[in-house]
Automatic annotation (TrEMBL):
Keyword Oxidoreductase among UniProt keywords: yes
Span of domain Dehydrogenase E1 component: 12-299
Source organism (scientific name): Kordiimonas lacus
GO annotation, biological process: pyruvate decarboxylation to acetyl-CoA
CDD domains: TPP_E1_PDC_ADC_BCADC
Gene3D superfamilies: 3.40.50.970
UniProt-recorded name of the protein: Pyruvate dehydrogenase E1 component alpha subunit
Pfam families documented for this protein: E1_dh
Record's catalysed reaction(s): N(6)-[(R)-lipoyl]-L-lysyl-[protein] + pyruvate + H(+) = N(6)-[(R)-S(8)-acetyldihydrolipoyl]-L-lysyl-[protein] + CO2
Cofactor field: thiamine diphosphate
Described purpose of this protein according to its UniProt entry: The pyruvate dehydrogenase complex catalyzes the overall conversion of pyruvate to acetyl-CoA and CO(2). It contains multiple copies of three enzymatic components: pyruvate dehydrogenase (E1), dihydrolipoamide acetyltransferase (E2) and lipoamide dehydrogenase (E3).
A molecular function GO annotation: pyruvate dehydrogenase (acetyl-transferring) activity
Length: 316
C-alpha cells in the first residue's frame, strides 16, 4: 500500500475510534438509549472490506456492533450519531437506535439486534442483485458467536445452492458476549465449516492493513466475477467489553490484545513521514468526532415527536 492509502486508513480508523469514544462518554452521561456495543479493534478490517466495495450498488448488513461498519461505508456521521442518541435528524429519525442502523444510499442495508439475523437479509440483497443483473454484491458481517446460529448456517448453505453473490465476513474476536468461542463451539474451524458447504473461504489477520486489504479485494472481486458466495474469517481483537460498561470478569489478566491502530501507526512511522503528521491526524480525527457527537447531543430528542408522527402516519 502507498503511504497515502495508509494515512487515509489511519485517519478514518482514528475517527471511528474517537467517534465511539465520544458515544461511550455520552452513554455514561445517560444520553444514549440502551447499551452501546463498540467496534474497538475491528476498524482496520472493516475499512479494508469497505475499500473493496462498489457503493451503494453493493449492500452490507451488520450486527448489533455496526457503528464502525457504517462509518467505514461513508454513512453521514452526524445522522449516525443522531440515530444512536435517539435524536431528530437520525438515519431513521432516532427511532432505530444503536442496533438498528440503515442507510442504503451509502450501502448499509441495515444492522440487526438479533444475533445472526442480518445474515439471511444479505441473501435477499444478493438475490436481488443477481435477478436484476446490477453487478452488485452483498456483504454480511457477523461474529464468531453468531456462527453457531441456525439462520447463519442455513444462509451459508442457501447461498451455495442458489449461487448468490454474497461475501460472508466473520469477525472472529474469540468471544460470544462473555463466552469463549472455544467453549461454545463443537468445532473451532470456521473455515472448515464454510468449506463444508462448498464456499470459497480464506482467513486473514484483521489487524494487518496490507493483508486485510489484499484479501478483501481478492474475495470481493471473486464474488463479483463468478457470482458465487465466499467466506472471509478475520481474526480481530475485541478491545472493549461486549458492551460499554461491561465489567469483563471473564477476561484473564493477560488476555488483552495489541491495538491494530498502533500497528498501523508503526507502519506509517517506518516510512519517511513529516514530523508530527501522525499526532496531527489523531488530533484532527478526535476533534471532528467530538464536535459531531456534541452537535448530535444538542439535537431535539426524537422520542418527543417521532413516535407520535410514525403512529399517526401508520394509522392514516
Amino acid at each position: 500500500m502507498e503511504l497515502e492509502d495508509l494515512t487515509l486508513m489511519f485517519e478514518k480508523a482514528h475517527f471511528i475510534r474517537a467517534f465511539e469514544g465520544a458515544l461511550a462518554a455520552a452513554s455514561d452521561a445517560g444520553e444514549v438509549p440502551g447499551l452501546v456495543h463498540l467496534s474497538n479493534g475491528a476498524e482496520i478490517l472493516e475499512l479494508a472490506v469497505a475499500s473493496a466495495l462498489d457503493l451503494p450498488k453493493d449492500q452490507v448488513t451488520g450486527s448489533h456492533r455496526s457503528h464502525g461498519i457504517a462509518l467505514s461505508l461513508g454513512v453521514d456521521p452526524l445522522a449516525l450519531a443522531c440515530e444512536i442518541l435517539g435524536r431528530e435528524g437520525g438515519l431513521s429519525e432516532g427511532l432505530g437506535g444503536t442496533q438498528h442502523l440503515i442507510a442504503p444510499e451509502s450501502g448499509l442495508l441495515g444492522s440487526n439486534g438479533i444475533v445472526g439475523g442480518q445474515v439471511p437479509l444479505a441473501l435477499g440483497a444478493a438475490l436481488s442483485a443477481k435477478t436484476l443483473k446490477t453487478g452488485g454484491i452483498a456483504v454480511s458481517y457477523f461474529g464468531d458467536g453468531a456462527a453457531n446460529q441456525g439462520a447463519v448456517l442455513e444462509s451459508l448453505n442457501l447461498a451455495v445452492v442458489l449461487k448468490l453473490p454474497v461475501l460472508f465476513v466473520c469477525e472472529n474476536n474469540g468471544f460470544g458476549q462473555s463466552t469463549a468461542s472455544a467453549y461454545a463451539a463443537g468445532g473451532t474451524s470456521l473455515l472448515g465449516r464454510a468449506r463444508a458447504f462448498g464456499l470459497a473461504a480464506a482467513h486473514v489477520d484483521g489487524t494487518d492493513p496490507l493483508e486485510a486489504t489484499k484479501t478483501a479485494h481478492r474475495l470481493a472481486a471473486w464474488v463479483r466475477d463468478t457470482g458465487s458466495p465466499a467466506f472471509l474469517e478475520a481474526s480481530v481483537p475485541r478491545l472493549s467489553g461486549h458492551y460499554h460498561g461491561d465489567a469483563e470478569r471473564y477476561r484473564t489478566t493477560d488476555g488483552r490484545s495489541t491495538d491494530p491502530l498502533d500497528r498501523l501507526e508503526g507502519m506509517i512511522l517506518s516510512r519517511d513521514v513529516p514530523e508530527g503528521l501522525v499526532e496531527d491526524m489523531k488530533s484532527r480525527a478526535h476533534a471532528d468526532a467530538l464536535a459531531i457527537v456534541d452537535e448530535a447531543t444538542a439535537a431535539p430528542d426524537a422520542s418527543d415527536t417521532a413516535l407520535e408522527a410514525f403512529m399517526a402516519e401508520a394509522q392514516a
